[in-house]
Structure formats: structure tokens, C-alpha cells
Specification:
Largest sheet of chain B: 9 strands, mixed
Largest sheet of chain A: 9 strands, mixed
Distance between the termini of chain A: 38 Å
Strand order of the largest sheet of chain B: 2-1-3-4-11-10-9-7-8
Strand content of chain B: 25-35%
Number of helices of chain A: 14
Number of helices of chain B: 6
Oligomer: heterodimer
CATH superfamily of the largest domain in chain A: Mur-like, catalytic domain
Shape of chain B: globular
Radius of gyration of chain B: 16 Å
Radius of gyration of chain A: 21 Å
């Protein structure tokens, strides 16, 4: 009864928040509900099949893809589709869908231990782990250790993990049941050394092993290779996603592995994944004054590395935009971890509240650029029918607000 | 002349957030003055060459910091280079490693490299945010602007001098920030500390190669604008 009352009051607060124009109301309801009933999340999760999705990059997209891949089951699925991924966000997502037997929940990396305990998940998805917003996030070796301890203490859950990321593999290695996915690892600057003993890792292509202890890449059952997925039976299929980029292909293979754990046939799940075209505004195409603008979001060095791969080839101009508000991390040091030299030879525009930080960075990489105050000036200076926009979190949201929240 | 050799120590263990920036800034400012420059990245499974001109050490988490210290002690290349008068610039975890001891995982004291007369331990609170500090006038470097993110508290012994006095932020924890002795210099400004402090970059270069001609103003413009923007933003 208390759970019912807490969710009802929380739901009312969410409605007020939406009416007041303060976000989508997905967090405020959860916060109030939790205040009335601190174990509300456990009560709401009880009896449901919960999937927790975490990692530094790709959480929102993978959560969306898993939700799509599970849709052939025909059940209602609770999910925090707006990316509110801490305890209040998860609570709100479950209370919005009280009768959904399945929940797919994006979860902040730091909250995994507490959320594993609270929701007793059937599946935990570990995508990747790399440096991100160091001014507020935990150090990543420490984070991997906490994941490892939490998963070791949760014998009932299956972990779906990227075997190609040594930190992730070490964390998942403590779990009783693991489905290993060869999802690739583009960014390697956080995993040259063994998270178990600290020795330098032997790395060749995607394989890795420690020179001094027994830690090594586990044998995989799902593989991403080029645009193909190889399933545990060894059968290869083309992915042919609408979403662009290697990182999204990796996310899709993970989603297929989760769908398989729920008994959804691969062909049916894959058909659902192909129909996903945009996730919370990411990859959206918008026309502004005759220019087709595509919005890409990336928040940290690993994300920028993958996003730079996705950019349409020259001569399509590129607008890079960086802010350093709270959700972005207030420290712009990470800009120096990204290699921008491949942008040489194309029109590069630089915007956002911290555009001078980015300008100095590009100057060091000898990438010519022009500073712009806003998206319209970028469109004018680009002088092209197409513009690729790569922005970090709040910079992306600002452009989205200007361009209209079209999906 | 032969190239200026910038040796970046253990990017595989000591590079948490943009540490590459320091090597890139030194390289650019040397090249703009006609000095051929090479960056040598030395991973923790490689020997540290003793014949570099400027050595760079970045930040790191507790375990990598302890591992890197043990390897540098066993390797000996860095200690030899500094003994021969090479320049050493270290930030954050690297700064602590230069000292007599620092606090490792669970704050157990770990013996440092003994290159600076400092001792570090763990403080009560994590210091995270913008930092501004006025540099020792003897060094003739404009005030420092940067970002700190550490939980260290550092005390200087008689053989080290404070690099600066903080006007914003925490630094060493006693109103001072960083330390130097001879050509060894460390700071809590983390990551790409030289980006917003080209004066400090030039100090390190001049220690290695002698007096430097000024750069043409247009080569300095963006870095100066960034510096002014950051100093103005925290002065608010």
C-alpha cells in the first residue's frame, strides 16, 4: 500500500513538473516517491524481469535497442527512455509502467552496485568503460572493482559483457553466468594495463592477455565483424542498421545477445533493431534554411573517437561544439585526449560555450577552423547543403532546442 | 642541432585526462622558435631513455601511481636523467610521485622517487575545480590558471620551494601550490596544465635550451584569449 501511495504521489509530482515545463518529469516523481518509501525501487522491481544497461558510452542507445529487440515478446516494457539513469530515474520508469513484466533500465556506472542489489536483475549489460567527466565520475579502475564485487554477490543474474574491453571483462569475470560478446574496442587508452595486477597487457587486434597473471580475453559467443553479427551457432548475418557507426553495430550485437537470453529469435530481434532510426534526438536530421543538419552526440574521448568515424566524408563541413556545464563535466582537459588531425582539409567550425578551449586544441593539431556563435552562423559559414554537428551533452541539447525537438 | 627530446613517461599508466596536452604545447612552442622537437612516448614495459631533455609525467589513479613509481625506481633511467640536469615536469599523481612519499591505496605510505623534498598524504575532502595561483616571483611566470582534481595534501621540506600561492582552489592544501627544486617542477594543476599557462611551458623550455625569443603575437592569441576567459570566469 505504501508503494502504491508513494508512486501515486510521485506520479502527480511528475505531472506538475511536466506542466511547469521543467523537463519530462521523469526524475521528480522518483525523488518524491523515494522520499516517502526509501525501498520503493525494490518494491517496484519485485516480480519483474529487469535488464540493467551500463557503460561509459552507448547506454541510452543500447537501452533503446534492447527494448526494441524484446518487443516481439508482446509484453509492455518499462524503460527510462529519457536517460534519467540514477535511482530516482529508474524508480520513475518503473512507477510509470506498474504492470510491465519486463524493465530495460539504463543505469549510471556508479549506481550499478546499488541498483543490482535493489532490482535483482535477470540481466546486467556491461558495454565499455573509459575516462569520462573525471570531475564528478569515479576513477575507472575503482569503478571496475565495484562492478566486480557487486556482480560476484549477485549469483542469479546473467551478465552480457564486452570481452574486448579488458576492464569490463575483468569486472564481469566475477559473475556466475556471462555471455561474452566480441563488441570491439576503438578507444584503448584506458586499458593498456591489467586491471587485476597492473602489468602491461599483450594486445594484438582485439585479443589481449596479461603477461604476468592469468587474466586474458575470455572466449566469446557473439561476434561483431564489419557489418556482420556472428551468433553462438556460428551463423553470420548482416546487421544493416539505420543507425550509423561501428559503436552502434556493437550496441546492436549486445542487444541481440540480450534478446536471445529472453528467447527472442535473432531474425525477429534484428528486424526490430533495423527499424530504430534515432534515439533521443541523436542522429536526427533537421533542415535549417536549406541546410541538412545531422546531430551527433559524444561526451568523452572514446565517444568522440567513435563519432569522428561516423562523420560524412569531406567536403561536408563539420561543426564541433563543446560546453562544460555540470552534466558535461566542468573540466575540458579531455579535449586533449582526442586526435583531431583527420579533420585537416575540411571546413571545421567551432562553437559552444567552451569554444576557445577547443580552438586552442585544434590549433595544436594544425586543424584550420572558424569560431561561430550559434548554429545559424555555422550554417552561413558552412555554405553547403549539408552540415555534420558533433556536440557534447548540453551543447547538443541547446542545438536541439533551437532546431526543434523533431525526432 | 639535434632535436629537443620530450619524453612522456608511462602514458599507459599515467594519463588520466588530457595529459598529452603538455607534450603538444611544448612541441608547438619549441617548433615555432625553430627548434626541431620529437615526442618520445615510453610505456611502462619500456626502458626510460636517460638522454631526454624534458620529461613529462601525468596523473593516475592510486594503483597505477604505485605501480609506476616502483617501475621507475627499478628502471633508473629517469633518476639518471634528472641527476644529469634534465628538466622534469609532473602533474597531480606524477607530482606526488616525485616526493619522498605519498599515500597509496587506503592511504598506506608509499616511498616516492625522492626527486623533490615533498611528502604527500590523503586529505579530508577531494579538491575539484578551477585553481588560480600566483607564481614565485623568482620564476617570472604569470599567474597559473588550471583545473585540479585530487585528494592529496602535500607538505614541502626545506629543499623544495613552493611553485605558487593559491588565490583560488586548494593546491598543496596550505595556501601554496606545487613545488620546484633545480629543474624539477610539479603541480596539482592536472592534465594539460601548460595549455593555459604558456609562460610555464616557456620556463621549462628555457631550462632545457636557454633563453628563448618571444613568439609572434598571432601565435599566442588564442591561448591568451583562453587564459583571460578562464581567469575572468572565476573572478566573477
Amino acid at each position: 500500500m505504501r508503494a502504491r501511495l508513494a508512486t501515486t504521489v510521485g506520479g502527480a509530482a511528475a505531472t506538475v513538473s511536466r506542466l511547469a515545463g521543467k523537463g519530462d518529469g521523469s526524475v521528480i516523481g522518483g525523488i518524491i516517491g523515494l522520499r516517502l518509501q526509501p525501498d520503493l525501487l525494490s518494491l517496484l522491481a519485485a516480480g519483474r524481469q529487469v535488464v540493467l544497461v551500463t557503460g561509459t558510452n552507448g547506454k541510452t542507445t543500447t537501452t533503446r535497442l534492447i527494448t526494441a529487440a524484446l518487443s516481439p515478446l508482446g509484453h509492455q516494457i518499462a524503460s527510462n527512455i529519457y536517460g534519467a539513469n540514477m535511482e530516482a530515474g529508474l524508480t520513475a520508469a518503473l512507477s510509470r509502467a506498474p504492470h510491465a513484466p519486463i524493465a530495460v533500465l539504463e543505469t549510471d556506472e556508479k549506481y550499478i552496485p546499488a541498483m543490482v542489489k535493489a532490482t535483482n536483475p535477470r540481466v546486467v549489460v556491461l558495454l565499455n568503460l573509459s575516462r569520462d567527466q573525471m570531475d564528478r565520475a569515479a576513477e575507472i579502475w575503482l569503478l571496475a572493482r565495484r562492478w566486480r564485487e557487486a556482480l560476484g554477490a549477485a549469483p542469479g543474474c546473467r551478465v552480457v559483457a564486452n570481452a574486448d574491453d579488458p576492464l569490463v571483462a575483468w569486472a564481469a569475470g566475477a559473475a556466475r553466468q556471462v555471455t561474452w560478446v566480441a563488441a570491439g574496442q576503438r578507444w584503448r587508452d584506458d586499458s593498456w594495463c591489467c586491471p587485476h595486477c597492473g602489468a602491461h597487457l599483450e594486445r594484438e587486434d582485439d585479443d589481449w592477455s596479461c603477461r604476468e597473471c592469468t587474466n586474458r580475453r575470455p572466449p566469446v559467443s557473439w561476434v561483431l565483424t564489419g557489418d556482420q553479427v556472428i551468433d553462438p551457432s556460428g551463423r553470420a548475418r548482416p546487421l544493416e542498421l539505420a543507425l550509423p557507426g561501428r559503436a552502434n553495430r556493437a550496441n546492436a550485437v549486445v542487444a541481440l545477445a540480450v534478446a536471445d537470453a529472453f528467447g527472442v529469435g535473432i531474425a525477429r530481434a534484428l528486424a526490430e533493431l533495423r527499424a530504430v532510426t534515432s534515439v533521443a534526438g541523436r542522429y536526427t536530421q533537421v533542415n535549417r534554411r536549406g541546410c541538412d543538419i545531422r546531430l551527433l552526440l559524444a561526451k568523452n574521448p572514446a565517444g568522440w573517437l567513435e563519432a569522428l568515424d561516423v562523420l560524412a566524408p569531406p567536403p561536408v563541413p563539420v561543426l564541433l561544439s563543446v560546453n562544460a556545464q555540470g552534466p558535461d563535466g566542468r573540466d575540458t582537459s579531455w579535449l586533449w585526449d582526442v586526435d583531431y588531425r583527420r579533420l585537416r582539409g575540411r571546413v571545421v567550425l567551432v562553437g559552444g560555450e567552451r569554444r576557445l578551449d577547443l580552438a586552442v586544441r585544434l590549433e595544436a593539431d594544425e586543424v584550420p577552423f572558424r569560431l561561430v556563435a550559434d548554429i545559424d552562423q555555422a550554417v552561413d559559414l558552412a555554405g553547403a547543403p549539408q552540415l555534420e554537428v558533433l556536440a557534447n551533452y548540453t551543447a547538443f541539447q541547446q542545438y536541439r532546442a533551437v532546431l526543434g525537438r523533431t525526432q | 642541432m639535434t632535436s629537443l627530446r620530450l619524453v612522456w613517461i608511462y602514458p599507459d599508466l599515467l594519463s588520466t585526462y588530457g595529459d598529452r596536452g603538455n607534450a603538444l604545447v611544448l612541441e608547438r612552442r619549441a617548433r615555432l622558435r625553430g627548434l626541431p622537437t620529437e615526442i618520445i612516448e615510453v610505456n611502462s614495459d619500456q626502458r626510460v631513455p636517460p638522454d631526454g631533455d624534458i620529461y613529462l609525467m601525468g596523473g593516475g589513479e592510486d594503483l597505477p601511481q604505485t605501480l609506476a613509481t616502483r617501475r621507475l625506481q627499478a628502471d633508473g633511467g629517469l633518476l639518471e636523467a634528472v641527476g644529469q640536469g634534465a628538466v622534469l615536469f609532473a602533474v597531480c599523481a606524477g607530482y606526488q610521485m616525485l616526493g619522498m612519499e605519498f599515500g597509496g591505496a587506503e592511504d598506506q605510505p608509499v616511498a616516492g622517487l625522492g626527486l623533490l623534498d615533498i611528502r604527500s598524504g590523503r586529505g579530508e575532502r577531494r579538491a575539484v575545480g578551477e585553481i588560480v595561483a600566483d607564481v614565485d616571483p623568482a620564476l617570472e611566470v604569470p599567474r597559473l590558471t588550471g583545473f585540479e582534481n585530487h585528494q592529496g595534501v602535500t607538505r614541502l621540506g626545506p629543499r623544495a620551494r613552493p611553485l605558487a600561492r593559491t588565490t583560488l582552489g586548494t593546491g598543496n592544501g596550505d595556501g601554496t601550490e606545487g613545488a620546484y627544486a633545480g629543474r624539477v617542477l610539479g603541480t596539482y594543476l592536472h592534465g594539460p596544465a601548460l595549455v593555459r599557462n604558456p609562460g610555464l611551458a616557456d620556463l621549462l623550455l628555457s631550462w632545457a635550451v636557454g633563453p628563448l625569443p618571444p613568439l609572434p603575437p598571432q601565435a599566442e592569441e588564442l591561448a591568451q584569449r583562453l587564459r583571460e576567459e578562464r581567469l575572468a570566469a572565476v573572478a566573477g
